[in-house]
Design brief:
Blueprint lengths: L1 H28 L9 H27 L1 H57 L3 E3 L4 E8 L4 H20 L10 E2 L2 H11 L4 E8 L3 E2 L5 E9 L2 E3 L4 E7 L6 H22 L6 E3 L3 H11 L5 E7 L3 E2 L4 E9 L1
Parallel strand pairs: 3-6, 9-12
Antiparallel strand pairs: 1-5, 2-4, 4-6, 7-11, 8-10, 10-12
Length: 319
C-alpha cells in the first residue's frame, strides 16, 4: 500500500508541475495582472500557488489513505512535544542537584587536602626514623640454611628498631611490618647463590612511641668495589695551584670525585676514610720544587666490598 501511494504521489506531482508551469507561461504571455502586479510577478505567484497545491494534495491524500500518517501527525507529535516539555521541566531540579553535588565534591577535596597536610605536619613532629632511611644492613651468603639465617636477620633488625622507636617498652614483637611478596623475593634471590647485602629501609616517617614500622628491603650484590693499591681517582696540580688554598681545594674536589666514583660502582658507604698525614706529605713535596706539575692520586689501602668502608691515602708524584 505504501509503495502504491508513493508512486501515485510522484505521478501526480509530475502531471501537475507541467500544468503549473504552462499556466504561468500563459498568464505571462496574456499580460494578466493580479492585485495590480506586473504580469511577470503574477506568473511567478501562480507557479508558487501551483506548487503549494501539489503539496496540499499530497498531504491530503496521505491523511486520507494512511492511518499511520494520521497517527503520527495528530497524536505522536503532540505527545512527543508534551513529553519534551515535561523532560525539560524535570531536568531543572536535576541540574540543581548536580551543581550541589559538584560543590560537595569540591569541598570534600579541600577537606582531604587539608587532612593530608595536617597528617604530614603531624608526621614531621617527633620523628625518630625518616621515610627511606636505612634501618639495618646485613651480609647474606647463600647456603642450605638461608631461611634460618634470614629469620635471625629479621629478628635482629626488629630488636634494633624497637630500641629506637619504643626504648622503654619490653618484649614488643614484630614491630617491623613487611609485605609477604618482599620476603618471598629475598628468599628466592638468595637461594640462587652468591653473596648479598640486605638493606632494610623505612617506608614511612616514624614517631617515637609508634607500635609499628612499615619497611621494605633492598637487595644488593656484595661485590668488590675497590682493590688494595688501586688508584681510584687522580688530579693534576699545575704551577698556578701550588699555594695552600688551591691545593686544599684540589684535595676536597678529588675526595668528592672519589666518593662519586665508588657510589657509581655500587658502594653504599657515604664517607671515605683517609689515612696518613697526606697534607704534610704534599706540602713537603711542593717545597722541594715549586716549578713542577704534580699529580695527586687517591689510592685504596684495602679490598672493599659493597658495604665495607673505603680507606684511602693520597700520594703526590711529579707529573
Amino acid at each position: 500500500m505504501a509503495w502504491i501511494l508513493i508512486v501515485f504521489l510522484i505521478l501526480l506531482g509530475g502531471l501537475i508541475a507541467p500544468f503549473g508551469d504552462l499556466l504561468g507561461s500563459k498568464i505571462g504571455k496574456a499580460r494578466f495582472s493580479i492585485l495590480k502586479l506586473r504580469p511577470k510577478k503574477t506568473a511567478t505567484i501562480v507557479t508558487i500557488l501551483t506548487g503549494g497545491f501539489i503539496s496540499s494534495i499530497s498531504i491530503g491524500l496521505l491523511l486520507l489513505v494512511s492511518q499511520e500518517f494520521r497517527q503520527r501527525l495528530f497524536v505522536d507529535i503532540p505527545f512527543l512535544q508534551k513529553t519534551l516539555a515535561e523532560s525539560k521541566r524535570a531536568l531543572v531540579p536535576l541540574q540543581e542537584e548536580r551543581r550541589k553535588l559538584e560543590d560537595t565534591i569540591k569541598n570534600k577535596e579541600i577537606q582531604l587536602n587539608k587532612l593530608k597536610t595536617d597528617v604530614k605536619e603531624f608526621r614531621s613532629g617527633n620523628v625518630v626514623i625518616k621515610r627511606g632511611q636505612t634501618l639495618f644492613i646485613a651480609d647474606i651468603t647463600s647456603n642450605p640454611n638461608i631461611k634460618s639465617d634470614l629469620r635471625k636477620i629479621y629478628n635482629s633488625a626488629d630488636k634494633y628498631v624497637q630500641k629506637i622507636v619504643i626504648p622503654n617498652k619490653k618484649e614488643i614483637k614484630n614491630i617491623l611490618l613487611w609485605r609477604t611478596s618482599d620476603i618471598s623475593k629475598i628468599e628466592g634471590v638468595t637461594k640462587k647463590g652468591g653473596d648479598w647485602i640486605l638493606l632494610i629501609k623505612s617506608a614511612i616517617n616514624v614517631l617515637k612511641g609508634d607500635n609499628f614500622v612499615f619497611v621494605f628491603p633492598e637487595l644488593l650484590q656484595n661485590k668488590i668495589i675497590v682493590r688494595k693499591g688501586e688508584v681510584i681517582t687522580s688530579e693534576i696540580i699545575g704551577e698556578n695551584d701550588l699555594d695552600y688554598k688551591n691545593v686544599n681545594l684540589k684535595i676536597k674536589t678529588l675526595l668528592r670525585k672519589t666518593r662519586d666514583n665508588i657510589k657509581s660502582r655500587g658502594s653504599i658507604v657515604n664517607e671515605i676514610t683517609t689515612r696518613g698525614d697526606f697534607i704534610k706529605k704534599i706540602r713537603d713535596a711542593l717545597k722541594v720544587n715549586e716549578n713542577n706539575k704534580y699529580r695527586l692520586d687517591v689510592v685504596s689501602l684495602k679490598d672493599s666490598k659493597t658495604a665495607e668502608s673505603i680507606i684511602v691515602e693520597l700520594n703526590i708524584t711529579k707529573f
